[in-house]
Sequence to fold (729 residues):
Amino acid sequence: MTTTRSGGPRIGLFATCLVDLIRPSIGFAAAKLLEDAGCTVEVPPQTCCGQPAYNSGDRADAKAIARRTIEAFEPYDHVVAPSGSCSATMSKHYPELFAGDPAWEGRARAHAAKTHELVSFLVDVLSVTAVSAQWEGSATYHDSCSGLRELKVHAQPRNLLGGVAGLELREMAHPEVCCGFGGTFCVKYPDISNVMVGRKTDDIAATEADMVLAGDLGCLMNIAGKLKREGRRTEARHVAEVLAGMTDEPAIGEAER
Amino acid sequence: MVEITSPRFKANAREALADKDLQRALTKVPSGFIAKRAKAREKLPEFDALRDRARDIKNHTLAHLDLYLERFEAKVKENGGHVHWAADAAEAREIVLKICRDLDARTVTKGKTMISEEIGLNDYLEEQGIEPVETDLGEYIIQLRKEHPSHIIAPAIHVNRDQVEADFRRVHGHLPQDRDLTAPETLLGEARGILRDRFLKADVGITGANFLVAETGTSIIVTNEGNGDLTQTLPKAHVVLASIEKITPTLQDVSQNLRVLARSATGQDMSVYTTFSTGPRRADDPDGPGEYHVVLLDNGRSSMLGSEFEEMLRCIRCGACMNHCPVYHTVGGHAYGWVYPGPMGAVLTPSLIGVDKAGHLPNASTFCGRCEEVCPMRIPLPKMMRHWREREFERHLQPATQRWGIKGWAFFARRPALYRAASGIAMRLLGAMGRKRGRFASLPLAGGWTSHRDFPSPQGKTFQQQWAERKR
Fold:
């Protein structure tokens, strides 16, 4: 691991396309959390991890996008993303995508080995045990599928949220059940997706928490969009925003104050 | 043959979502099966290690499938039984018909078998003047209703108690109309009484097989009702319908795989009955069938060997994948449009009836990964669904809008400079339009999203723009 002036690792922050386009404040929250933990953070030119193409069966485009991403992040000690699903695409599926490709398999494996989901990186790699943040109210945490099942992100966000001053964590029923987003699934099968997200917002509402948190913006846009459509008052935010103490921006789908 | 409605999966799903009885019945799936399996797993610390062993046993078997099938055939013959090889559904039906004809059979009792569904046996036998009688309670109920199973181990999970009572009153017309059928046990008792008579009249008994043992030429069924035992021991002949991948090398291997089967399926340590059948009745046996036949069905499975779908042949039909599937929970089994529903069906069905007909199935998944997480045979179901999507993409089978949507996105995602320029403009525009209210109630080209939920507005400038400005 190369070190920098600060002595910490040099991180290539992969913001994810959704954060880049829809909610940049999550990217800044991620950068703050990493910098507070002693890392140097850089943001090389980037687009998307390629997951939409990969999961749609378009391997050629998925590989082309992946090659761009691997090249862009080769200079860094770690690649960190505020998303379980994009991290899992890079850390679990890039090697599979380039299996048997002599020019790229090694590079894909190296990229995969140094890629981490943000909160698990903070806790498992940097051994962060507490953050200095405050948020007054109650919150419930939804486990996004890829983070939970492919990357085993479960206790880490809950542990860090436990240290946020003023925040009371309330578990919802079935936090591990999919919210119905599923990338392109939600527009390919909108009727089914709608029932799934409706069950999720019911479980969220039953906790009477002020806010729902998760580690993936895709799920959060789906959940927040449904909460708003149902006229519910529960806010939705990415867990990084709360952990970084950066909650001045309106919550997801919320009007400007 | 069961009518294939998989191509109209979307319409099936819409109908399922609007069906109040079905929706009420489906709530039983997550509330019952999931907790029971979790409890069974908790009680057995080596459960996950057993899953590894089960996977390894089946991988070994599939690598030597020809060898074990031939060994099984030789053993069955040695025991006085017959083995019939069926390349497809039509051959399997004809084999069964010939066995029935040779015995002048009029009535055939049946234990639960999904292969019978796969080859459309009941309709065929009826056309030939032979009456098939389902003896598993769930199968009996759906036979009365002229339906097909909506779940591979709980075929009538979509039916509620009131519907069963109405069906029994309609079909069992000879019983007193004022009888009390309010308690579930009374329904069970009535079915038992009716079926007892049919067991005694049957000429041929047909069962499936959970395992075929190469070492001994044994077929094994697991049931909770004991109907399988009466089906196979009382008639003149016992016919076993099994697909080729049911083969397992030894009794030792079977005893190991049985430990994961019931726990994954119903959360039981073992099913109530685990019945071993090895050949016809011997001279000193007190009972048993005079003839023992095994019909080995391929129906496309051998073409899965050596392909990216080979691992699907490890499946032992426990149903855990559909029990844990949030999509199955919303639409139930019939929406999938053929014999095998849920995640295992999403992978197997395209192999058996063609991805051109079953293309929706591997797409109707969020890849949430719960199926793979609970599969006792550790079958990578999402990965194989993705492989089907790749085949569809190659053959241009997906809707054009979907294809060009992905292609359009990829065009920009492959070109970072262009992507930054275009997204920078687009997000500033969208952000300016939506930021004040925070969301859009409708957006052009996003009807799939906004018909059911709002679309959160972008904040404005992209992260990459803002980051570059911050660093300046």
Notes: Chain B has two domains: 6-302, 420-471.
